[in-house]
């Protein structure tokens, strides 16, 4: 009898050990190795806070900055600010391209303010930038990475990645997928009648990334304009009562005014945070594989993303295009992750 009890106890121990290894390996397997390329930017800062508050799902290896909403010195300062607000100064910030590949630079100070961030006090963050340029960081990191292991969240113009791909085409090997906030199809653009800002600010870069053959998911205005703030959702964030909730409340209250006025909407989108929500919980979104091309010709359709939604031309499907999203599910996720911060 005693022998049986001994064997039974040993069996229980081995089963529980096996289950622990299984769970931890599944969790470890699910963790996303992530580089966030960004032009903070109000909604970029919200996206950074959300990502940096989710270390069990996102291993944010670095933040790389680019000129876009505002000039590079400001986007880089704001990325360091978001990192400090999230208590994640372990994540390095690399500054990248100060201007687009070909076109003349444009900015969105009318929306994001001269400092690239409104509604909150700005200060010089304690921790500085890394010394090497973001483009060199991308090349070195993606060359050294295991094949198909690194995900890139692209929250601004795609200049940094386009420069890296041009200098080192072999880096596609290290990329798992690139999730882009950008583009517009069904309801037109936000910087021209047909173009969305991130693409319009550097369409040649978007074209280089598209033609590189990396796995691409686009989170366009088609879906971000369905995920809008509201009084109740802003109250949900304010009810957190922590610093992060107060910062995001202040930032979004200012940021959404432009879109609400322009579109006559009752709330505004949090474009870039939708990319992070997709990485954290893709079930919140719907889309389909499509053929997409970017118009790089100067003129009225400059920067337009042309999406063959009904596969009319039967061309290769090169992008997963998201057009649906669970708005309340997004704000519940955003609020819960902000609630983890101080
Ligand atoms: O069109 C919206 C996009 O342009 C967002 O990424 C916003 O931050 C700006 O960069
Ligand atoms: Ca952005």
Automatic annotation (TrEMBL):
GO BP term, example: purine nucleoside catabolic process
Gene3D superfamilies named among the record's database cross-references: Ribonucleoside hydrolase-like (3.90.245.10)
GO cellular component, one term: cytosol
InterPro entries registered for this protein in UniProt: I/U_nuclsd_hydro_CS (IPR015910), Inosine/uridine_hydrolase_dom (IPR001910), IUNH (IPR023186), Ribo_hydro-like (IPR036452)
GO molecular function, one term: purine nucleosidase activity
Keywords: Glycosidase, Hydrolase, Signal
Signal peptide residue numbers: 1-28
Family annotation (CDD domains): nuc_hydro_IU_UC_XIUA
Protein name per the record: Purine nucleosidase
């Amino acid at each position: 009898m005693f022998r049986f009890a001994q064997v039974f106890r040993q069996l229980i121990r081995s089963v529980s050990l096996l289950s622990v290894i299984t769970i931890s390996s599944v969790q470890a397997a699910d963790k996303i190795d992530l580089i966030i390329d960004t032009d903070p930017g109000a909604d970029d800062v919200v996206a950074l806070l959300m990502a940096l508050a989710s270390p069990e799902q996102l291993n944010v290896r670095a933040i790389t900055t680019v000129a876009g909403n505002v000039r590079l010195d400001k986007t880089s300062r704001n990325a360091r600010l978001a990192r400090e607000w999230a208590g994640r100064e372990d994540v390095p910030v690399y500054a990248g391209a100060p201007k687009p590949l070909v076109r003349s630079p444009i900015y969105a100070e009318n929306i994001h303010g001269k400092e690239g961030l409104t509604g909150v006090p700005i200060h010089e963050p304690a921790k500085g930038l890394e010394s090497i340029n973001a483009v060199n960081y991308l090349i070195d990191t993606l060359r050294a990475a295991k094949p198909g292991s690194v995900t890139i969240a692209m929250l601004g113009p795609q200049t940094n990645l386009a420069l890296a791909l041009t200098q080192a085409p072999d880096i596609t090997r290290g990329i798992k997928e690139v999730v882009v906030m950008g583009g517009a199809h069904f309801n037109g653009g936000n910087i021209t009648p047909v173009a969305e800002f991130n693409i319009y600010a550097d369409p040649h870069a978007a074209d280089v990334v598209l033609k590189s053959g990396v796995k691409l998911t686009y989170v366009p205005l088609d879906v971000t304009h369905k995920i809008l703030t509201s009084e109740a959702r802003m109250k949900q964030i304010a009810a957190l009562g922590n610093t992060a909730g107060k910062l995001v409340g202040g930032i979004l209250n200012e940021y959404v005014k432009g879109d609400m006025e322009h579109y006559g909407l009752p709330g505004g989108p949090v474009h870039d945070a939708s990319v992070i929500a997709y990485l954290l919980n893709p079930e919140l979104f719907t889309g389909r594989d499509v053929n997409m091309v970017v118009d790089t010709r100067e003129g009225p359709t400059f920067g337009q993303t042309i999406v063959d939604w009904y596969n009319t031309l039967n061309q290769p499907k090169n992008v997963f295009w998201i057009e649906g999203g669970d708005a309340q599910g997004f704000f519940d996720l955003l609020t819960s992750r902000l609630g983890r911060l101080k």
